[in-house]
Each structure stands twice: as C-alpha cells, then as structure tokens.
Amino acid sequence: MHGLGELEAAVMDVLWCEHPLKVRDVLERLETPKKLAYTTVMTVLDNLHRKGWVRRERDGKAYDYVPAMSRAEAAARAVRDVLASSGDPRCRADAFRQVRHTPRVRTAAPSAASAEAVAALMTVAISFLIGAALVGQFAPGFLARLVVGGADPLATLVAWLASAIAVVLTTAAGVVVLLLPDHGLTALHACWSLIQHGTTPRIEAVGGIAGTSMVIALAYRLVATTLHTVRRRARARAEHLETLRIAARRDGSTLWLAREEPLAFSLAGKPGVIVATEGLTEHLSQAQLNAVFAHERAHLTGRHHLLVAFADALAHALPFVPLFKLSPAVLRELVELAADSAAARACGPDAVRAALIKVSQHGVPTTALGMSGSSIDLRLARLRTGRCPAGRARQLLTCTFAGATALALPAGAVLSAIALTCLA
User: Which residues fall within 8 angstroms of residue 63, CB to CB, at 6 or more apart?
Assistant: First the structure.
C-alpha cells in the first residue's frame, strides 16, 4: 500500500465523505486555492486506483469511484506501518503519539503549481516555433538585399546557411519542449485516459498531438529527402567521371578535354577534380587561365557542391518555407560569387572578369559548379569595380558575426517571450 500525496489525500477526503462519485463529481467537491482541470483529477483517481486506495466500476461511459477502505481502516494501517518501521519500542511509542497528535496540514495542490511550469514550457515551445517561422519567412528578402548591395558573398552564404540551420534546430527544439515530461507526454497520457473513461478529449489535447505528429513527419521527410538527394547526385557524378576518364587526358587533379570551347568546371568527390577544355589555353591568357583554376579550386576547397546539395534537399523536403524554397538558386549564386572573390584575391579582379567574359557562353553539368554558372551580369558588375576582396582575417570576422547573428535570431523570440512571462 503506497502513501498519499497532498492532492490524493484531498480526493480521498471527498470520497470518504460521499461515494460512489464520478470524476466530475469529485472535481466539483474539491476545495483548492486554484480550480483544477478535469484531467488532473482523473489522473489522481487513476493513481489512487493503481495504489489500491480506491475501487472503480464502469457506469456507462464513465467510472464510479469508491474508497477501498474506510478512513478508520486507513488510519489504523498507517499506524501499523509506522510502528513496523522501527525495532525500538520507545521509538514506536513516539511515532504513535506523533501520528495521533500531529494536526493535518493542507497545502496547495501540486498540480496548481505545476500548471504554471507547464504554461512556461508552452510559452517557450511556441516562441521557438514562432521564431523559426519568422526567420523562414523574412530572412530571404533581407539576405537577397545584402547580395545586391555588395556584401561579402561568403559572409552572406554563411548567414543563409546559418538561418536555414537555425530554422531546423529551433523547430526541433520547440517539439522537444512540447514532449518534455509533465507537458507533451502527460497530455498524450491524459488524452488516452479520457478515451478510456468514455470522455471526449479536449480539442487542445488532440490538436497538440496532431501538431507534434505532423512535425515528426516533416523531420522524417527532411532526412529521407536529404539522403535521396545526396545519393542521386553521387550516382550522377560517378557516371560523369566514368565518361570523362575515358574521353579526357588526366594531368594531376585536372581532366583535359580536347574541345575548342573555353570551358571549366569542378566535380566533387574524394578527391574532387577540375575538368577543363583545351580551348582555355587557346583563348585565355595565363593570368586569366590561373583565375579560372583559382575559381574552380575555391569550389572544391569550400565544399560548395555539398552546400548546393543540402539546399536542394531542403527545397524538395520543405518547399512551403520561403527560405528553403529559394535556397538552391540563391546558394548557386552565392557560391559562384564566393569563388569569384577567392579568385580575385589570388589573381586580381581584372583577370577574373576577363576570364568570366570568355567562358560565360558555355554551361556546366547539373551536378557540377563552374565559372560559367549563374548570375553572370551580377558577378561582372561586382568585378567591374576593380576592388580586391577583404583580407582573410576581416572575412573570418565578418563570417563569424553573420553566422552568429543568423543563429541567434530565432532565439531572440524565445528570450523575449521568457522576459514577458517573467514580467507577467
């Protein structure tokens, strides 16, 4: 026989005064500082039944609850338990006197206090989800203006990726908070108990469970789509490499094709390779040729192919989020701008611009990245200024600030909600 908590003792007092009673009858007769929820009393009665303090019999769709023993029997059993816990007769006598003369003290029901904690958790969870939604909706427009305004492309690339990661993480964090003990899982248990008792669950409980199920399904879709996209691109890349190895002349990490068109692109792999045509050496100067290879090496060292694959997976998995829907096109543009910046730092902006003009008439395979990729006009306009990109130290500082700011934006909504909750 287990002991009783404060709220359990209050429920037993009601049942000892009058029985049999249903859950709603007990709720109406309880006197607590704060009105309790129906599910709270139902859970307490379930616990009392499990502990052996009450019996229940089904009456239609609900249960009738009666005490399993009288108040006098419960008191006698409690005394026997106290006496049995000590081997010293004097201690047993002291315990007996303490049981008889200690007044019963009533405190506020723990469920009333836990309701405030549940409300705080709900506030945090909703804030996480609202923060993720705001960033997913409004970040693309802000970041696009940064690109057009001439911001560092690598810093903008970091900010875009950090925003996407922040949306995924804050959404997951909101779901985790919803599933914390005494919150989401308790709501699920209460909903199931209501069904067992023949009572229709509240719409809030059903909606919360449905929302959680939907988020879990979206997370599964994101993981499955990412794996599928990576495997598909890997197969296509392997097929291209097999074909190129037959038709091309290998020189270190470069595959040379006997074609007149000036063209170069890079394919990711272990290791990655640069594919170039003989036409490059015929149409470009040595400085321009160096700029082309610096551009392609920047794609490989920056893992730009992997970033583009990640953007494609996000867009396929969650196309209704603007940040994810626009990611493939924007990231292809940003990685080309970032590669241009790296090449301009190594060879000068004039050489990069001249090389870009000569190779821009020819496209690249879908699984590859190349200098003749997207946004030629925007890239030429940025290179036309003739300014060299910022140094690596300044660029590192800018990227760190951009990434940290993008990651912190959704958390700002959470902190604001917590501050408002504390003030309230």
Answer: 22, 23, 45, 56, 57, 197
Give pLDDT tens digits along the chain (424 positions).
456 788 888 888 899 888 889 998 999 888 887 888 888 888 899 888 888 889 998 888 888 999 988 888 877 777 666 555 555 555 455 544 544 444 443 434 444 445 566 666 677 777 788 888 888 888 888 888 887 777 888 888 898 888 888 888 888 777 777 665 444 445 555 555 555 555 555 554 555 566 667 767 777 887 888 788 778 877 877 777 777 777 788 888 788 988 888 888 888 877 888 888 888 988 899 999 999 999 999 999 988 988 888 888 888 888 888 888 888 888 888 888 999 988 998 898 889 999 998 887 766 767 678 777 777 888 888 888 766 676 778 878 888 888 888 888 776 765 665 565 555 5
Those residues whose C-beta lies under 8 Å from the C-beta of residue 78, and which sit 6 or more positions away, are 99
C-alpha–C-alpha distance, residues 334 and 156, integer Å: 8
**How distant is the alpha carbon of residue 339 from its chain centre?**
30
Give dist(CA 168, CA 222) in Å, integer: 10
